[in-house]
Amino acid sequence: MPVITVSLFGRNYDIACGPGEEARLQEMAAKLRPRLEEIGRSTGFAQDSFVLAVASLLLMDELDQREREVQELKLQQMETSLNREGTLAETIERLADRIDALAARVEAA
Fold first, then answer.
1. What angle do CA 13, 18, 21 make, to 5 degrees?
2. Cβ neighbours around 15 below 10 Å, total
3. Residue 66 has what pLDDT?
4. 17-36: buried (b, 16+ CB within 10 Å) or exposed (e) per residue?
5. Helices of type H across the chain
6. CA–CA dist 106, 27 (Å, integer)
7. Which residues of 61-84 are buried (b: 16+ CB within 10 A; e: fewer)?
8. Is the CB of residue 11 less than 8 Å from the CB of residue 48?
9. What is the pLDDT of residue 12?
């Protein structure tokens, strides 16, 4: 299992990852670094454990919000699908009525 060193808020962390995941982990660390620095500046705290805790909470808040958005989109998709099914059923019913009317006309002729 590969181990890479990730630098976050002035400290180095050796983190194990799956084979081939090294670049992705470095990419995530690169995205996290500026956020940690901003939190450190905005809170006035230089303690890495505090900054990492605040960053974790903020990221969990963002994740929760995205999960809520996904759920809302799924509900909207289900409603749209149900509306389409209803419209399709009505169309099929109208076509069946027209076919019945045509069949009756053909029988009468």
1. 80
2. 16
3. 97
4. beeeeeeebbeebeebeebb
5. 22-43, 48-108
6. 71
7. eeeeeeeeeeeeeeeeeeeeeeee
8. yes
9. 93
Residue 15 β-bridge partners? 4
The pTM assigned to this predicted structure is 0.65
| Contact indicator for 15, 2 with CB cutoff of 8 Å | no
Angle ∠(27,30,32) on CA atoms, nearest 5 = 110
With tokens 């976050």, the residue in question is 8
Q: What is the Cα Rg of the chain in Å? A: 29
Q: Return d(Cα 14, Cα 4) in angstroms, integer.
A: 6
**Which residues is 8 bridged to in the sheet?**
11
Asked if 9 contacts 51 with a C-beta cutoff of 8 angstroms, the reply is yes
